[in-house]
């Protein structure tokens, strides 16, 4: 019994030691279980200072209020809000197209030079991701020249880390601001080829692990997406260690420097039979006018059924002319009007002559300025990290519904792993299952939605003024039901019919609607009646177009 008690005591002591170690390795953690007021400071800068109390401005005239909202209304409101579907709270970006700036000062600065440092936080794009950033800035001490209540995009940071997606930008930023000891300038060094941002509505956890061997690892949801070395020119742009030499800014290219690798052969002569004036195309002398061509028939004729409008004023509107329609005689003939031979490529065409290219005997290559020692060059064994004194979020986002949670700074990646397992993973699994159910429901709703489209199309076919084309419309709908992939084409075809009929009703004309049926995939039954074939050939031969409305033509004055 005594031995068992001793084992329990040792186990308890080990557990306590692990807990204390975890507490010692956790430098900063905010779960946002409590409201953020008092811990986080919203910037007082005009761009980020939202007008939240209407009592302050209710007395303003409407026009002046609108002006102020237009000028100062770019600032968004931070909210302490639950993550959708959870009882877990976070820091919420609540409005679209707004600027946000908020900062939390650490109790004491954190050195990045001692051992490992882990930066981790959760973020969720609850309304999806179209155009928004959700990155954090890890700020230098205020001696660098900034104040918490004046935090803005110019405030000096040591590291910027997190997702950003808008337009062509889609990456998880990792930017180190590093001081050049020679020039004294702070330079932004961007991680090359960073991972892309998950584009769903789930909670994701982003982790950056800075190792003492100059390695940095980027994890998304606990999975390593990128490994880099701070001192490698292949991993950061620009590299932390500058080039030893640079192009001499004062060096000039000599006037006689020839960069042309090839030149026209000065001894070449244009051949005597080279005709530069020969046309590219000539008439096809072998072409023969098709039999049945109607030379004396115009392609268009006056609409015999058109009548002059009662309100037509010849003095005001000019001489009335009937609208034109396609000549019905031309529909059965190979063509109407003056026949002309078609054009063909001219076999004698050679174009403008130019001398062939030869190697340039004076070629010296592409000129480059000579290299000189780089005055800003320095050698480095380890990055000269600036300490972190605060965590800030400064973004200008087109996206609302961005939720931040469980912001962590730790000195041990096991601590970050523990938080992922206990705070992030349970939420993520719930959201993933819910998303899966919604996707399955959307798929089934999509099928029922297609059927609703067909129901509407059947009702369209029953519209009285479309009765002349009802069979044609029904035929299109039936084909779309058999092959849903042509539904869009069917809808377009029916719209063409409707618009054509409306034009006829409004403006007259006898032109039949020219609707090309959507192509139907081949089936095992590949036969069709001669009537169907003839109908398809007729449709292919029909020219596109609709009856033109009556045109008012004025006399020349």
Automatic annotation (TrEMBL):
Disulfide bonds join 131-166. One of its GO terms (biological process) is protein folding. It is a single-pass type I membrane protein. It is found in: Endoplasmic reticulum membrane. Its main location: endoplasmic reticulum. It comes from the Eukaryota. The keyword Transmembrane applies. This is Calnexin-like protein isoform X1.
């Amino acid at each position: 019994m005594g031995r068992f008690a001793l084992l329990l005591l040792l186990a308890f002591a080990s557990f306590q030691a692990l807990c204390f170690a975890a507490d010692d390795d956790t430098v900063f953690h905010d779960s946002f279980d409590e409201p953020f007021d008092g811990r986080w400071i919203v910037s007082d800068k005009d761009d980020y200072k939202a007008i939240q109390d209407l009592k302050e401005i209710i007395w303003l005239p409407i026009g002046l209020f609108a002006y102020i909202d237009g000028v100062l209304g770019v600032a968004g409101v931070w909210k302490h809000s639950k993550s959708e579907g959870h009882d877990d709270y976070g820091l919420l970006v609540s409005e679209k197209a707004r600027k946000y700036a908020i900062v939390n000062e650490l109790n004491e600065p954190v050195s990045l030079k001692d051992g490992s440092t882990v930066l981790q936080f959760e973020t969720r794009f609850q309304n999806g991701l179209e155009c928004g950033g959700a990155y954090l800035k890890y700020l230098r001490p205020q001696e660098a020249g900034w104040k918490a209540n004046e935090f803005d995009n110019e405030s000096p940071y040591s590291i910027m880390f997190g997702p950003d997606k808008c337009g062509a930008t889609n990456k998880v930023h990792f930017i180190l601001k590093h001081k050049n000891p020679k020039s004294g300038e702070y330079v932004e060094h961007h991680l090359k080829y960073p991972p892309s941002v998950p584009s769903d509505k789930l909670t994701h956890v982003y982790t950056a692990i800075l190792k003492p061997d100059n390695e940095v690892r980027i994890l998304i949801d606990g999975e390593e997406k990128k490994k880099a070395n701070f001192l490698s020119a292949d991993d950061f742009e620009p590299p932390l260690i500058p080039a030893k030499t640079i192009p001499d800014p004062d060096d000039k290219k000599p006037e006689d420097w020839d960069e042309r690798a090839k030149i026209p052969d000065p001894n070449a002569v244009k051949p005597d039979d080279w005709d530069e004036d020969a046309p590219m195309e000539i008439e096809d002398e072998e072409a023969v006018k098709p039999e049945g061509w109607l030379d004396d028939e115009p392609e268009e004729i006056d609409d015999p059924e058109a009548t002059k409008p009662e309100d037509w004023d010849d003095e005001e509107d000019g001489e009335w002319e009937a609208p034109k329609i396609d000549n019905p005689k031309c529909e059965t003939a190979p063509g109407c009007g003056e026949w002309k031979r078609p054009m063909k490529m001219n076999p004698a065409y050679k174009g403008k002559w130019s001398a062939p290219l030869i190697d340039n005997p004076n070629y010296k290559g592409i000129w480059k300025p000579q290299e000189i020692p780089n005055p800003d060059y320095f050698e480095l064994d380890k990055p000269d990290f600036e300490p972190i004194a605060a965590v800030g979020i400064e973004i200008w986002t087109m996206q609302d519904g961005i939720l931040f949670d469980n912001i962590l700074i730790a000195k041990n990646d096991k601590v970050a792993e523990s938080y992922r397992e206990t705070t992030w993973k349970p939420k993520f699994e719930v959201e993933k299952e819910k998303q899966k159910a919604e996707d399955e429901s959307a798929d089934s709703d999509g099928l029922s939605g297609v059927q609703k489209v067909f129901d509407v199309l059947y009702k369209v076919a029953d519209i009285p003024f479309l009765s002349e084309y009802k069979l044609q419309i029904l035929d299109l709908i039936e084909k779309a039901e058999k092959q849903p992939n042509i539904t869009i084409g069917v809808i377009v075809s029916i719209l063409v019919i409707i618009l054509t009929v409306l034009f006829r009703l409004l403006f007259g004309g006898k032109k039949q609607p020219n609707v090309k049926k959507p192509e139907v995939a081949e089936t095992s039954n590949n036969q069709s009646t001669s009537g169907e074939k003839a109908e398809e050939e007729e449709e292919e031969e029909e020219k596109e177009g609709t009856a033109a409305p009556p045109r008012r033509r004025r006399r020349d004055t």
